[in-house]
Design goal:
This protein is of the alpha+beta class. The chain has a domain of 115 residues. It contains 9 helices and 9 strands. The chain has a 3-stranded antiparallel sheet. The chain has a two-stranded antiparallel sheet with strand order 1-9.
């Protein structure tokens, strides 16, 4: 397939910078099967730092959004199946292991004035797997006063917090460290009289912090995956290109726009 190279203005290397070359509406390419030639949309590509081949980024914005939603999904959308599968397995495994180490308690969203959960900002980078924490926080602080799904990813209760009677009864029945006497009866609600976060720290010990670290790392690593889906891989093909001291030749020159042969 012919490739139109787009070198930089001074003949220096531009490593993995995606560029679209807009073809005129009447631009056509010969048909390999003798059929009438058809106009083709431009492709946004980046240059592989490994072998200098062109990587079709398709729509970088969509790819980046997909890679945030599910790590590696943007790369799969771009046809980079090996890298996408590796990213997906590594980041989701790291997140799930951290959640398991923390007893399922380390991913939650809370913006209490004295104790905001800043770790969740990093955890949210892992995508939709962390979004239930936002829903649970809104449910617990909203009119319902109780989370969904038995309280998974719900924030801890603080002293004096009001919850529904059903949620109070569920906590007293399911949590060995919480008893019915830990709630004041404030019809139609119940008022918690202890600090649930302190209970979690005492029960889990150092595993609470280790689980938090793992889930934060998963979210932060996914930021690199998102960038890879948007701009292509980082790096240059060789030391000369990294220095940018000599012009590139051949297929490693700059970035390229590849005319589509896909009718879609």
């Amino acid at each position: 397939m012919p490739v139109c190279a787009a070198p930089s203005g001074r003949g220096r290397a531009v490593a993995a910078a995606p560029v679209a070359i807009a073809l005129p509406d009447d631009t056509v390419t010969p048909s390999s099967a003798g059929r009438p030639s058809q106009p083709h949309a431009p492709r946004i590509v980046a240059i592989s730092p490994d072998d200098g081949s062109a990587i079709d980024l398709r729509n970088p914005a969509i790819a980046a959004a997909l890679s945030w939603a599910v790590p590696g999904l943007g790369q799969l959308y771009q046809g980079r199946t090996h890298k996408g599968s590796l990213f997906m397995a590594a980041i989701l495994t790291t997140f799930v292991v951290g959640l398991w180490l923390g007893g399922g308690k380390v991913v939650y969203a809370s913006w209490k004035p004295n104790e905001p959960r800043w770790a969740f900002v990093c955890q949210a980078g892992a995508g939709v797997v962390a979004l239930p924490a936002i829903v649970q926080s809104a449910r617990l602080l909203g009119p319902a006063r109780q989370p969904l799904l038995g309280g998974a990813m719900a924030p801890p209760l603080f002293p004096g917090q009001y919850v529904s009677r059903a949620y109070a009864e569920r906590l007293a029945a399911d949590d060995p460290d919480i008893a019915a006497e830990d709630f004041f009866d404030k019809p139609p609600l119940k008022q918690f009289r202890r600090d649930q976060l302190a209970i979690w720290h005492r029960r889990l010990g150092r595993f609470f912090e280790i689980g938090t670290l793992y889930t934060m790392l998963a979210g932060m690593l996914n930021l690199l995956v998102i960038y890879d889906a948007w701009a292509g891989p980082l790096g240059a093909t060789d030391e000369r290109n990294r220095r940018g001291t000599e012009p590139l030749t051949g297929k490693a020159a700059g970035t390229a726009a590849v005319p589509s042969t896909d009718p879609g």
